Structures are given as C-alpha cells and as structure tokens.
Amino acid sequence: MPAGSSKKRERQYEHIKDSAEKRGMSEGRAKEMAARTVNKERARSGEAKSSSKASTRDPKSAPQRGGQRSHSGAQGPTRDQLYEEAKKKNIEGRSTMNKQELRNALGR
User: Is the dihedral of CA 11, 66, 28, 43 positive or negative?
Assistant: First the structure.
C-alpha cells in the first residue's frame, strides 16, 4: 500500500488480496492485483496525487464492471478457452475445430 493510505483503503487491499489467495492465486500476484485495484479506486475518488486517464475516465469502477472486460481484448478468448466452453456445451467435433470454427459453433 502507498504511504498515507486511509484505513479504508488498507482494509480494501487486505480483503482483495485475501480473496485472490483463497481463489488459488499466488501471493505475489494477489498483492499486485490488490494494489492496482486500490490505486485505481484512489485515483477515481481523487485521493491519489496523480492518476492516469484510464483510471479516471472509466464510468464504472472495477467491482461494478464485474469482469465485463474479461477476454474482450483485440482477439477475444483463446482457442483453448473457446474449446473448454464448447466442451461444457457438448459440441460435437470440437477437437478438430480451429478458433474461428469454435466461435461459429458457439454462436459468437
């Protein structure tokens, strides 16, 4: 946590870190994620001395988004992620499908 953080932000950091570790994330990665999340919330609320445009322009906070941006990068989910989804939906022939064919079979 950055020096001078409020008690609320310290509790928030610990809560996020502990939750991530319970989900199986490594301690180092959990600390990094918690720090980034708390720092972004500090920037959004005007508690930070400086902040990036991305931190302040986003209309929804990370908890409000609830994973909305997951796997929505330039190329979307990986072939393996699509395969796992197809497996859950019992789509036949999935093992021989490429990424585009899996997208089509899943209706994406």
Answer: negative
Q: CB of 81 within 8 A of CB of 71? A: yes
Q: How many other β-carbons are positioned within 10 Å of the β-carbon of residue 76?
A: 12
Cβ proximity of 86 and 77 under 8 Å: no
Q: Report yes or no on whether pTM surpasses 0.90.
A: no
- Based on the fold, state whether residues 57 and 15 are members of the same structural domain: yes
* Phi, psi (rounded to 5 degrees) for 7: -60, -35
pLDDT-above-90 percentage for the chain = 46
Residue 55 shares a structural domain with residue 75: no
Question: 12 near 38, Cβ under 8 Å?
Answer: yes
Query: Taking a C-beta distance cutoff of 8 angstroms, is the pair 10, 41 a contact?
Result: no
